[in-house]
Design goal:
387 residues, alpha/beta, nine-stranded mixed beta sheet, seven-stranded mixed beta sheet
Length: 387
């Protein structure tokens, strides 16, 4: 918080612009030079903030990240801008005009909500996070829509807001927290706050949450961006009991139809690797039905089919070889086909991809993908390429 106060001064802002593109390898040299003209504390704060801004580009884009203010936890825990924008659009399209953003951190979600035209009360108990959220609202021209309050979220009255958004802290001193009741605040409190919202509510949770922990009156949504699963959201006041997987960019959304598990069948010409959000949402059966396919193994989320059908919910590979797991046979086959660019994917196998690569020593001008998995319970290797 003291660092932020220094950086918000005219001298601090000028220094931030000067160190914007500093190479981390040159920090010591730059710091030594700048300390001849500026206080050491300010120089350290500026270089630290420049480093955080560089890390934040992947989440916020270069334009916003280059102007915003971050804390180390804020960079790690804030929502990716594309995901926050998608969620804000959902709220705006449902008629929400005001949101109480509880556990707002450095304000990533509040920014997306305000840009969707929604009035936001952003609350966090961490003084540094609240100060950064306030500074970010101002620097991005959104202060008229975002009120930042430093307070315990459990003590905030949200009655005057259409919706509630809660992003509980899921990291502690020992790293990630997997028990939802160990979140801060606990998931049970967040659910109670959501149920009191006049119109709707959204709770951001870890994508690994067990399905049995999802309340019956909630909609559960798993979201991926560019193929990487980013989060799960519990929605209240929307479609109780609904389960969906949403893929960004797009968005493209797959809804559960309550289908039974697909049948296990022999490998076909094509293997489909479902998006991670589809797998987390337990919607592999919906994808398999769309593809007229089945599973290679009852416990593994690889779909096999005889036809190539376009789908946004899975990546297709054409399979050329199906072998029992045998490193020597794989090495010989790859050598025969002069495969040097080898992609190794695994699901249901104890073999690590890098370990396999060291053993087979791929070499040559051609490319291939090998899947280490099980077929009807037996360890197997499937070789192919993107379809």
């Amino acid at each position: 918080m003291n660092d932020l106060a220094l950086l918000l001064t005219p001298e601090g802002r000028v220094l931030l612009d000067e160190v914007r593109d500093t190479d981390p390898a040159q920090e010591l040299t730059v710091a030594t030079r700048l300390r001849r003209e500026h206080p050491a504390e300010l120089v350290s704060a500026a270089l630290g903030q420049a480093r955080l801004r560089q890390r934040a580009v992947v989440k916020f884009g270069a334009q916003d990240a280059g102007r915003m203010f971050f804390t180390p936890n804020g960079v790690e825990q804030s929502t990716r801008a594309s995901v926050a924008a998608y969620r804000a659009r959902r709220l705006a399209e449902s008629g929400v005009t005001s949101v109480a953003d509880l556990c707002c951190g450095i304000g990533g979600d509040a920014i997306a909500l305000a840009r969707a035209g929604i009035r936001v009360l952003a609350v966090d108990r961490d003084p540094a996070a609240a100060a950064a959220a306030r500074a970010n609202a101002e620097v991005l021209g959104l202060a008229g829509l975002i009120e930042v309050r430093e307070a315990e979220v459990t003590e905030v009255d949200t009655a005057g807001y259409d919706a509630v958004f809660v992003d509980p802290a899921r990291r502690g001193g020992r790293g990630r927290i997997f028990d939802p009741e160990a979140y801060s605040p606990p998931l049970s409190w967040a659910v109670s706050a959501a149920r009191r919202a006049p119109r709707t509510a959204a709770l951001k949770i870890a994508p690994g949450i067990p399905h049995e922990a999802v309340p019956e009156d909630a909609e559960a949504e798993w979201i991926s961006d560019g193929g990487d699963v980013k989060e799960a959201v519990l929605w209240f006041g929307t479609e109780p009991g609904a389960v969906r997987a949403t893929l960004l960019p797009g968005p493209r959304t797959l809804l559960s139809r309550g289908l039974p598990d697909p049948e296990v069948r022999p490998p076909g010409r094509y293997l489909y690797e479902p998006d991670g959000a589809v797998i987390r949402a337990h919607l592999v059966a919906e994808v398999a039905e769309e593809l007229d396919g089945g599973l290679l193994d009852a416990t593994i989320a690889y779909v096999t089919a005889d036809e190539l059908r376009p789908t946004p919910y899975a990546t297709a590979y054409e399979i050329t070889d199906h072998l029992p797991f045998n490193v020597k046979k794989l090495k010989a086959l790859l050598r025969e086909r002069e495969v040097g660019n080898l992609t190794v994917k695994k699901r249901g196998s104890a073999v690590e991809p890098e370990e396999l690569r060291r053993k087979v020593k791929p070499h040559g001008p051609h490319a291939a993908t090998v899947f280490l998995t099980r077929v009807a319970g037996a360890p197997a290797m499937l070789i192919g390429h993107p379809a």
